[in-house]
Write a structure and sequence with these properties.
There is one protein chain. This protein is an alpha+beta fold. The protein has one domain: outer membrane lipoprotein receptor (LolB), chain A (Clam). It contains five helices and 16 strands. It has helices spanning 3-15, 19-28, 112-116, 120-123, 234-239, and strands spanning 35-46, 49-61, 65-71, 79-83, 86-90, 98-100, 105-107, 110-111, 124-128, 133-135, 138-147, 156-162, 167-174, 180-192, 195-205, 214-224. Strands 1, 2, 3, 4, 5, 6, 9, 10, 11, 12, 13, 14, 15 and 16 form a 14-stranded antiparallel beta sheet that branches. A two-stranded antiparallel sheet has the order 7-8. The longest helix has 13 residues, at 3-15. The chain starts with a helix and ends with a helix. The relative contact order is 0.19.
């Protein structure tokens, strides 16, 4: 074989990201900070109009710790604590936290897992499709994901990653039955402390009676922070 051709083939194979690297690239803009406080808003949109919204702060530490605190509105003061696979709803005035699952709704089609739990590279294995597809005018690589845990509510997922920018573009979640359940589009990105972060995503609940209504999640402010482990306990979260 011609030496130049051999080198070209070898170089090409080395330069092509693996399925795992595409997963890590998709996670990087969603998990830019190991410890941070993020101000966010969830809005329900029907016919182009906002019909409801909720503001909340997300306290995130490492892989397994998260705390969501609702700000204003009828849910003001409510908190959702996540530690590993365990999650609790903490209601002001209630004596005990209430165990919940990752599918607990924040608003509309947005769940706790959407903002505090999902890690593609750690939660799924991936197979890279040979052909690219276009999403909103962007050439994307497509990965078929299989959940590592048998307890995953969405064992089958399809992920589209922008080939040029190495950023997530779209995710389609399916139930164990194979029925499509949730379609997520990553619509805006920005910079925070020099890092690329997701600033907006739209979620369509494919199981809802009105599939035209979407839930928009906006991440409005990222603040790197050193967070005490104590706030990620039921008692510590209550006092925050």
């Amino acid at each position: 074989m011609n030496l130049l051709l051999l080198l070209t083939l070898l170089t090409g194979s080395v330069d092509q990201p693996s399925a795992q690297q595409w997963l890590e690239a998709a996670d990087s803009a969603r998990e830019a900070f190991q410890e941070a406080i993020i101000s966010a808003r969830a809005s329900q949109i029907a016919g182009g109009n906002v019909i409801g919204s909720a503001d909340f702060d997300i306290y995130r530490k490492g892989r397994d710790k998260g705390l969501i605190i609702f700000q204003g509105g009828k849910n003001a003061g409510r908190k959702i604590l996540t530690v590993g696979d365990k999650m609790w709803l903490i209601v002001p005035g209630a004596s005990n936290p209430v165990p919940i699952t990752a599918n607990q709704r924040l608003m509309g089609g947005a769940s706790v897992a959407d903002v505090a739990r999902l890690r593609f590279a750690e939660d799924y294995t991936a197979a890279l499709r040979p052909d690219s597809e276009t999403v909103e005018g962007k050439k994307c690589r497509v990965l078929d994901l299989t959940a590592k845990s048998p307890k995953s509510p969405f064992p089958h997922v399809v992920l589209w990653v922008d080939e040029a920018q190495k950023l997530p573009a779209r995710v389609l979640f399916s139930l164990p039955s194979g029925k499509e359940a949730k379609d997520v589009s990553f619509t805006k990105f920005g910079k925070a402390s020099g890092k690329t972060v997701v600033t907006e995503m739209e979620i369509r609940d494919l199981l809802a009676a009105d599939r035209a209504t979407i839930t928009r999640l906006e991440y409005r402010n990222f603040r790197a922070a050193r967070l005490d482990d104590q706030i990620f306990t039921p008692d510590g979260a209550k006092g925050l």
